[in-house]
Amino acid sequence: MKIAILGAGAFGTALGGILAEKGYDIDYYDSRFEQEKLSDALMNAKYIVLCVPSKIAPFLLPYLPKNKPLIIATKGILSAKTFNRFSDYMALSGPGFAVDIKAQKPTKLTATDDRIIELFSTEYLSFDKTKDINGVLMCGALKNVYAIGAGILNLRAGTKKHQKYLDEVAEEMKSVLDTNEAQAKTVDLVCGVGDLKITCDLPSRNYEFGQMLSKNPDAQPEKTVEGVSALKRIKRGEIKVPENAKILHELMRSSDKWA
After folding, report:
1. How many of the other CB atoms lie within 10 Å of CB of 140?
2. What span, in angstroms and rounded, lies between the C-alpha atoms of 86 and 205?
3. In 22, 45, 74, 145, which residue has its Cα 20 to 30 A from 163's Cα atom?
4. Which residues, other chains included, contact 253 with Cβ-Cβ below 8 Å and sequence gap of 6+?
5. Fold of the domain built from segment(s) 137-254
6. Domain 2-129 CATH superfamily
């Protein structure tokens, strides 16, 4: 069975490596857009795994078939509405660094469909499960934004201030999900608090950028920082931000120079 992996970066190749070891035929598409190569990757594919950066995904989606199962592994997309044109889509997310997956270190992710679990389960990769695709996607985007905030505050893992921030953010994320027709309890899964914990610390690129901002408010990201893209879209009104989301509102107010 052929599976198309759209996005040949670290995470895409980590997921593709699992599938290849299990005997599946894998074809990668590099996110540098070339229509002919995309067509080749999609031809005869049973599943499509989306792993491109979130800012690239909207430009790629119109070229994907509507009726093939789509596994969304891209983090940073704020709403499942983005995928309304597809008849069969599911989400895969969580605190899994590509380097750990490639090294076969025990890792747990969140899946929204049993087919994901069947495809990717190994001795070292396990899953919790929810049907809340919207909530899983929103968690994957919001945690990057909050990680920038943790970096700005220079919070250190293992300290009371760091844990207090994580607890406050988790409650705030639940409010955001609830306001946007997702399930607040999804935040309690590894795609929520689990991913938030590892992202609000080094070596997270979002956290590192926050640290840069703490020293220079005019700093600009040198590489792709998913939290910046997500915050821009939040500011444009892609999701509703409840009044009690104080941390998120503060990041929106203070980000005019970098988001």
Report:
1. 28
2. 31
3. 74
4. none
5. N-(1-d-carboxylethyl)-l-norvaline Dehydrogenase; domain 2 (1.10.1040)
6. NAD(P)-binding Rossmann-like Domain (3.40.50.720)
Q: What is the pLDDT of residues 75-115, one digit of tens each?
A: 999 999 999 999 999 999 999 888 999 999 999 999 999 99
> Which residue type does 170 have?
A
* Tens-digit pLDDT profile for residues 188-227: 999 999 999 999 999 999 999 999 999 999 999 888 899 9
The dihedral region occupied by 201, where left means phi > 0, alpha psi between -120 and 50, and beta the remainder, is beta
Residue type, position 259, single letter? A
pTM of the model: 0.94
My answer on whether omega of the bond before 203 falls inside 30° of 0, hence cis, is: yes
All structural domains of the chain with their residue ranges: 2-129, 137-254
